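Raw record, unedited: 7TM_GPCR_Srx domain-containing protein
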Amino acid sequence: MATWAFWVVISYFLDPSTDTRAISTFINSLFVAAPIPGTVAMIIQNASYRNFIAEKVFRRKSSDVSPSRYVLPWKTDCKTRI
């Protein structure tokens, strides 16, 4: 969809029997993958953005809840229920 305008313009200059599947796949993959290097460069060059991302990704919230205690019943709990 992003390259639709490009192919409309190019279609006027190509023979209708020309197979354009390979080149269209390559161009679409360039459009899809383009934001990845830009984001990596922004993280590397911008210290405040890097710190923001690091805080959001690497910060773990502490919790007093023990998941195994509330998900799985204790053996004594099973015996008292029967």
